[in-house]
């Protein structure tokens, strides 16, 4: 998340802004500045420093916004189905399919797995088996979630 701010510096230019007057190119270059901050804390510290140095009467923040960078936006859009499975799958911590999914995932990521597990899955199509296993887990988790949200009501 990035924080953007556009600030006008100078009493005369602030007055001009409030009167909806047009700025000259020179005034735009000298008196209107845009700033980008990586964190909200950084932005707030900047505002505090400006206020202490100049006083709030000499500047005005005319535009303030937040911007998601591409990586953050991509992470926000990503569905973390394992959090959902962990929360709603019955007996999650004692399930053989959860263990199998972990083994297959490690294999696809080229991470080390136990030699017995390696022998057990040696002739498998790892990607297809992982897809089937995770789909089964997700469907069962969703069914449990659905039953919690909409419990069976025999009176209807």
Mean of pLDDT? 85
The secondary structure category is alpha+beta
Major sheet characteristics: 3 strands, antiparallel
| Percent of residues in beta strands | 5-15%
Number of strands: 3
Integer count of domains: 2
Order of helices and strands: EHHEHEHHHHH
Nearest-angstrom radius of gyration? 28 Å
The rounded distance between the terminal residues' Cα atoms is 48 Å
Percentage of residues in helical conformation? 55-70%
Topology (SSEs and partners):
Layout: E1 2-9, H1 11-18, H2 25-31, E2 32-37, H3 40-54, E3 59-67, H4 70-77, H5 81-88, H6 96-108, H7 115-120, H8 126-149
Antiparallel strand pairs: 1-2, 1-3
Helix pairs in contact: 5-8, 6-8
Tell me briefly what this model is.
The chain has 156 residues and is of the alpha+beta class.
Characteristic terms for this protein:
elongated, 57% helix, 156 residues
Notes on the protein architecture:
- With 156 residues, the chain is an alpha+beta fold.
- The chain has helices at 11-18, 25-31, 40-54, 70-77, 81-88, 96-108, 115-120, 126-149; strands at 2-9, 32-37, 59-67.
- The protein has a 3-stranded antiparallel β-sheet.
- Helix 5 packs across helix 8 (126-149) and helix 6 (96-108) crosses helix 8.
């Amino acid at each position: 998340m990035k924080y953007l701010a556009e600030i006008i510096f100078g009493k005369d230019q602030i007055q001009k802004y409030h009167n909806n007057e047009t700025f000259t190119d020179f005034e735009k270059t000298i008196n209107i500045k845009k700033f980008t901050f990586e964190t909200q804390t950084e932005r707030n510290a900047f505002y505090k420093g400006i206020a202490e140095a100049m006083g709030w009467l000499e500047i005005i923040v005319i535009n303030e916004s937040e911007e998601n960078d591409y990586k953050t936006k991509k992470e926000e859009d990503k569905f973390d189905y394992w959090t959902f499975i962990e929360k709603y799958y019955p007996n999650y911590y004692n399930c053989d399919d959860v263990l199998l999914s972990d083994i297959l995932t490690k294999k696809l990521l080229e991470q080390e797995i136990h030699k017995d597990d390696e022998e057990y899955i040696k002739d498998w199509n790892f990607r297809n088996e992982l897809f089937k296993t995770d789909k089964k887990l997700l469907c069962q988790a969703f069914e449990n979630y659905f039953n919690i949200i909409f419990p069976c009501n025999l009176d209807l």
